[in-house]
Amino acid sequence: MKDEERMMDETTQPLQDSAQAVASREWRKLAGAALGVAGCLGAIALLQVPQLQQLRTRSETATTADIQRDLAAERVRLDLLENAPSFGFDNLIADWTFLNFLQYFGDEPVRSRTDYALSPEYFDVVLRRDPRFLDAYTFLST
Question: Which of 23, 31, 73, 141 fits a 20 to 30 Å CA distance from 42?
Answer without folding.
Answer: 23
